[in-house]
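Posting here for the record, re: S-adenosylmethionine.
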Amino acid sequence: MDRGHTGLLPRTPRLEDESYLAFMESYRNHAIRGMFPHIAQLAGAAEASGGSADEQAYVRTWKRMMRSQQQLTWQKLQDSFHADAAHYEAELKAAEVARPGRLHYDPAFVTPKYASLDIHLQPGGYVGDPLAGYVFHHGTKVFYQGENDQDQLHQQVVDFVRAPEDGKVQRVLDLGCSIGQCTTALKQRFPDAEVTGLDVGLPMVRYAHKRAVDLGIDVHFRQGLAEDTQLPSGQYDVILAYILFHEVPERLFRTIIGEVHRLLRPGGTFTVVDAPNDTALGAGNRLWLKFDARYNCEPYSPAFVASDLAGMLEAAGLRVASRGPTPTFLSCTTAVKDARGG
Ligand SMILES: C[S@@+](CC[C@H](N)C(=O)[O-])C[C@H]1O[C@@H](n2cnc3c(N)ncnc32)[C@H](O)[C@@H]1O
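Prediction output follows.
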């Protein structure tokens, strides 16, 4: 069961899981690197002649492969971790009181319905499976095709975080932190700050806390809502939302941004790394986005891609300081709360 770690990545319960996941990783790699360039060509050609490539045989095969890859990966991981569920539950329970960081959750917390979907087809999503953190960690290893085994991509995201101009960073908040890979990287970037990760999923923050304890990194985790964090006003110097927005309903975009404005001190910064706005997307990526929304349980994402993030930030009193692509497909927007606190 406890088969140790490879660097930051814990090993799976059984050796056979690793070979299964390695196969899944190359299967996904083939679908994305091998097949997708052709899909993009088909989508572009179809659009240019006023049609759609959606129903073409090659595209349908690709969609089936992408969906099956997700389903098979989650299924394998869930079966494997749940075969020893008592062991993993005990591990999470023991970590709850372990230090350096603290874990905060309220047993009376009510998860909103919108956050209870099987996002990315993970059964139970972020909230419904007590072992979802373990499953997510290994499932996203496959998702990132082995390029994030040592949190490299999370570190890259954290490098994009805008620091306040006066250089003062006492409190940092990672909104929608999942299993805390940016949260721990934020602590490494701002070692003197108090760093907190917040997520609606209790299984996520329980695993995030256990993981940070194992790594000996002093960060805190809370179950909570980005739109109503229950955290104090004007206390945060730096806030990050990495791929949170495209997973919340459109009606919450402005509420979350308003909450960020409330939490930031004057001069504090907000960094959003997420899907690019649709004007930056080619025909192939638009096809992928539609596939994700419909077949990969990402129902909120198209509304975010179509939204005016910069306009919403400015309307809330957050001055947009920079916008641009990241080395991955995502886009990074940074904003600053007016130094007069407006
Ligand atoms: C794609 S994951 C984010 C990944 C994460 N930031 C990372 O570093 O890998 C989206 C996360 O947002 C969380 N989430 C969704 N809606 C939320 C909300 N309203 N408030 C807080 N967290 C939310 C989900 O539980 C999930 O863990």
